[in-house]
Amino acid sequence: MVHRRRIPIQLWFPLVMTFLILALAATVVLPADQTADQTSANLGGATITDITPALIEEMNLQPPIYGVVVTDVDPNSSAGLAGMQPGDMIQWVNYEPVQNVTQLKDTIWRMALDPVAFQVTRNGTVFVFTVLLR
Fold this sequence. Notes:
Layout: H1 9-26, E1 40-43, E2 46-50, H2 53-59, E3 68-73, H3 78-82, E4 89-93, E5 96-97, H4 101-111, E6 116-122, E7 125-131
Antiparallel strand pairs: 1-2, 2-3, 3-4, 4-5, 4-6, 6-7
């Protein structure tokens, strides 16, 4: 004998709305100036960019080279006040490794922590910065 559970009427509306929201989010078209593969972002007043060979040469980055690099920092922002500087390589966010800007943003979004802990390498020295993103 098969037992089937019925969904209570009170759950139908939230269930249908959730489905519709997810379906609409999957069909969102990005404007021409945005792409799904963003290679830079602004977080807490710091411009973060994926590491490229040209950027390694331009900023004279020292090994180990992985993660993302800070290319610009507003000195009056939370990142600037925490001590971040251009040329810092962010390698861990909230104690999870990151390889690109998309992964960094996904990690921050998934963990939903604020302030965010960034582990940064600057000229071979490791620093940990806590940045308020609000």
